[in-house]
Amino acid sequence: MLKEFKEFAMKGNLVDIAVGFVMGAAFKQVVTSFTGGIVSPLIGLIFKSDFKDVKWIIKEGVANAEGTVEGEVAVLIGEFATNVIDFIIVAFVMFMVVKGINKMKKKEEAAPEEPKGPSQEDLLTEIRDLLKK
Q1: Checking DSSP bridges between strand 69-70 and strand 62-63, what pairing results, if any?
Q2: Would you tell me how many other CB atoms lie within 10 Å of the CB of residue 34?
Q3: 28-67: per-residue pLDDT in tens?
Q4: What domains are there in the chain, each with its CATH number?
Q5: DSSP structure string for the chain
Q6: Exposed, middle or buried by CB within 10 Å (0-12, 13-18, 19+), for 116?
Q7: What Rg value do the Cα atoms of the chain yield, rounded?
């Protein structure tokens, strides 16, 4: 059973998936820092606050002695929008990667060889010429 598992784990597809997963997680960090450090502040200029802090307060909370608010009910619009932007960027980059890989695979596929010998037109021409005789 251990030998079977080793063969399964070392198959090319599983290793490729693992490498892709690790690279995707690292890329997600890059996208998160891009949206958090560049996109959110620029959009925050419109709202005159940090974009991630934009929220729709449904029920006001009460400030306690530590300065935190308790009992507040709010919809975190900015955080949700930032996560949607992250997702769109990651999805677009993954789409472009898959599109590039598929394009390379199509180039690798060799064009089918033309059949050797005379073409159908040549044979028909030859038959026509023989019938004329």
Answers
A1: antiparallel
A2: 14
A3: 888 888 887 888 788 778 877 777 777 888 888 888 878 7
A4: 2-108 (1.10.1200.120)
A5: -HHHHHHHHTSHHHHHHHHHHHHHHHHHHHHHHHIIIIIHHHHHHHHTS-GGG--EEEE--EE-TTS-EES-EEE-HHHHHHHHHHHHHHHHHHHHHHHHHHHHHHHHSPPPPPPSS--HHHHHHHHHHHHH-
A6: exposed
A7: 31
0.70 cut: is pTM over it? no
19 and 13 Cβ atoms separated by less than 8 Å: no
User: Could you give the C-alpha distances from 74 to 51, 53, 58, 71, 77, in angstroms and in order?
Assistant: 15, 11, 5, 10, 9
> How confident is the model at residue 112, as a pLDDT?
65
